Amino acid sequence: MTVAAPQNDQLELNMEKSEDIAGLSPELMASVNEALEDGKTDLAKLLVDTLHYADLADLLEGLRHDHREGLVDALRNEFDPNILAELDDNVRERVIDQLGLRHIAVAVAELETDDAVEVVEELEAEEQKEVLEALPIGERTLIEEGLSYPEDSAGRLMQRAVAAVPSHWTVGQAIDYMRDDDDLPRDFFDLFLVDPRHRPVGSVALSRVVKTQRHVALSAIMNSEMKIIPVAMDQEDAAFLFRQRDLISAPVIDDSGRLVGVITVDDIVDVIHEEHEEDIMRLAGVGEEDDLYAAVIDTTKSRFTWLLIHLFAAILAAFVISFFAETIEQLVALAILMPIVATMGGTASVQTLTVAVRAIAMKELTPANAVRTIGKEIVVGILNGFIFAVLIGVVAWLWFDNPALGGVIGLAIILNLVVAGMAGSMLPVFLQKYGFDPAVASSAFLTSITDVVGFYVFLGLASLLLL
Question: Is the same domain home to 140 and 178?
C-alpha cells in the first residue's frame, strides 16, 4: 500500500511531460494569440523565441491569417529557414508571398538540399526561376538537379552532400578528413566507401570508425552488403526498404552507378507520414490538397468529383429499388429494414477494403497470395453473416411479428456480407494490377456493389418468399 502514492506521483509527472513533449503547450499558444490580438507583436516574438522550428511551424499553422502575418513580420529578420520545410503547403505558400522571393532565396540557400528542393518545387515556374537565379551557382546547380528527378522519387528525397571516402583509406585518414572538410553534411551516420569511378562499394557506421584503431583499413570493417537506392526509385519503395532492413541511411546512385546522394531515416519518417496521410485522404475521397488550411473554393473542388461519383452510385441503387416499388407498397416493413442491409454491407466492405489497401501499401498482399486472402474474407463474411443474420432476424421477427420477414433479412445479410468481403478484397488487387490506385477507386465501386446487391437480394427474396 505504501508504494501507491509514489507510483501515482510518477504517473502524473509522466503525463505532464507528455503534454509538453512537443514544446508547444496550449498555454503558450493562448498567450501568443492574446499578444497578437492586442497588437503586441514584440511580446509574441519574445514568447516564441525558444521554440524549435518545427513547433514554430505548428504554431504558425494554428494561427488565424492576420495573426500569422503579424508574427511572420515580427520574425522576418530572424526567420529560421527550416520553418519553411515544416509548414503545410497552403500555409507555406502564404508565408512565401508575405516574405517575398528574395527573402526566400536567402532562406533556401541555407537549407539542406532535400528541404530546399521541397520548398522550391511548390513554387510557380516564374517564381522558381527568380529564386534559383538569386542563389549561388553551387546551390542552384544542386537544386536544379534535384528538381530534374521524378516527383516522389529518391532523387527528390535525397541530400546531395554525402560523406564519401576512397575505399583504400584507413580509419585514421577518414577521421582526419571528417575533422578538416567543411563540405560534409551537418549530420550523418555512415561513411560510404567509393571506388575510383565514385561508385559505392561499402559503408561503415561512424560508431565502428570511432571504435577502431587508426591504422585499420576501412575496407576491413565495411559493410559490403549495404542496400543501394536508384535515383528514380519511388519514395514509398525506399521507405519500405528502410523499414525492412532497419536502415539509418542509404546511398543513392544515378543511372551509371555513381554515388549522387544519401537518404537518411529522418527523411523516411516524413515519407511514411505523407504516404499514410495520402492513403487515408484517398480512402475518404479527398485530394492531397484538401486540408484544414486550404481555401474554401479549393476544398469544394477537391470534394466535388468524389461526391458526384457517389451520387451516381446512389442513383443506381435507387434504380434497383424502383423495380420493387409494388413490393414495398404491399409490405412497408421492407422500407424500414432496407437501410440495415445497406449499412451492414457497406461497413463490412470498408473494413475489408481498409485491411486490403494497407496490406498492398505494406507489400503484404500480392497476386501470389490474393486467392488465399480473398478466400479468408469470404469465410469471415459467412461467419459474421450468420451471427448477424440471427440477431437481425430475431429483431425483425419480434418487431413486425413476422418470422418469414426475419428469415428474409437474415439471408440477405449473409449474402451481402459475403459479397462485401469478396469485393472488398478483390477490387484493390484488381485495380492495382491494371495500374489504378486502389485507395482512390475502390470505395466508389464498393458502395455501388454492396448497395445494389443488398437491395436486390433483400427485395427480391421478399418478392419471392413473402408475397
Answer: no
Q: Could you tell me which residues come within 8 angstroms of residue 10 by beta carbon, excluding any fewer than 6 positions away?
A: none
- What is the per-residue pLDDT for 23? 67
My answer on whether 243 and 173 are in the same domain is yes
Supply the CATH number for residue 201's domain. 3.10.580.10
Domains in the chain, number: 3
> 234 phi and psi, to 5 degrees?
-65, 140
Question: Any idea which of 99-103, 279-283, 360-364, 397-401 has the lowest mean pLDDT?
Answer: 279-283
pLDDT in tens, 210-258: 999 999 999 999 999 999 999 999 998 999 999 999 999 999 999 999 9
Range of the domain at 385: 296-465
Q: Around Cβ 338, how many Cβ atoms within 10 Å?
A: 22
Q: Judge contact between 134 and 123, C-beta under 8 A.
A: no
If one counts every other C-beta atom within 10 angstroms of the C-beta of residue 457, the result is 20
Whether 46 and 186 map to the same domain: the answer is no
**CA gap 385, 348 in Å, rounded:** 10
Do 399 and 424 sit in the same domain of this protein? yes
- Residue 275's contacts (CB-CB under 8 Å, 6 or more residues apart) are 235, 236, 239, 361
d(CA 351, CA 421): 9
Contacts 24+ apart (CB under 8 A), 246-251: 248/189, 248/190, 248/205, 249/188, 249/189, 249/190, 250/226, 251/162, 251/192, 251/200, 251/203, 251/226
Cα 170 to Cα 418: distance, rounded to the nearest angstrom? 65
What the block records as the C-alpha cell of 443 is 470505395
